[in-house]
């Protein structure tokens, strides 16, 4: 089990997954911002104490456009949640950390150094009968300083340029049916030529916690996804891709990019090559 026992101010970049025990002990720390990415309806019913709500759709952007970057208003949204460079952000949801990971990638893209995901999310917290509330915490707006790291992001142009680069692995984290083109969710089905396929959910246990590092490292290595390569993840709209981005970062991969346009862009652009 991957655990974190350090205080927020001392968290290392490899300590990206925290356990419910740790959060329970630090739930009132003033330098922590817990972010709930479930639906507003579920948040209003009950949520982890001191958690603020963030609509996951605010982190995706227009699905009909060529999404080369996260939404332009993201820094403003983060500031309104009381997040600045000194804030330790802990994200959770109730869908295998699906949307929590999207927030994780966006924060890393914008240069935020303190961000982690709650292992098992809301469902594990609930199962363990930990503290819940329906009260919305008072938030003091802060200034979120955006310092984008372009090496966290891939574009269609970047992929085309590196498609034959042996040091770059394009990783399709959609289902096998989407990858093979049997399930079509754009003008065309299939995958980016040369991409390997590991569905994002294979990193998770049924209880919504992450599998062990040993199991995960073996799974990725078997497909040539190794730490000496640069890895580019993609899916349909870059949410599942963000989940695998987080998984790889948690495992100690340092060169990982998310193709933010993903198949929603690639599959609809008839000028881009497709493989089945």
Descriptors:
Oxidized Rhodanese, domain 1; alpha/beta; 276 residues; 12 strands; disordered N terminus; single chain; 15% strand
Q: Which helices and strands occur, and which strands form pairs?
A:
Blueprint: E1 17-18, H1 20-26, E2 32-36, H2 40-45, E3 47-48, E4 51-53, H3 74-80, E5 88-92, H4 98-109, E6 115-118, H5 121-127, E7 132-133, E8 153-154, H6 156-162, E9 168-172, H7 176-180, E10 196-197, H8 213-221, E11 230-234, H9 239-250, E12 256-259, H10 262-266
Parallel strand pairs: 1-6, 2-4, 2-5, 5-6, 8-12, 9-10, 9-11, 11-12
Antiparallel strand pairs: 3-7
Helix pairs in contact: 4-9
Based on Cα principal axes, name the global outline.
globular
Strand tally, please? 12
CATH evolutionary superfamily of the largest domain: Rhodanese-like domain
The figure for the number of domains is: 2
* Known CATH architecture of the largest domain: 3-Layer(aba) Sandwich
Supply Rg.
Answer: 18 Å
**What is the count of helical runs?**
10
| Class of secondary structure makeup | alpha/beta
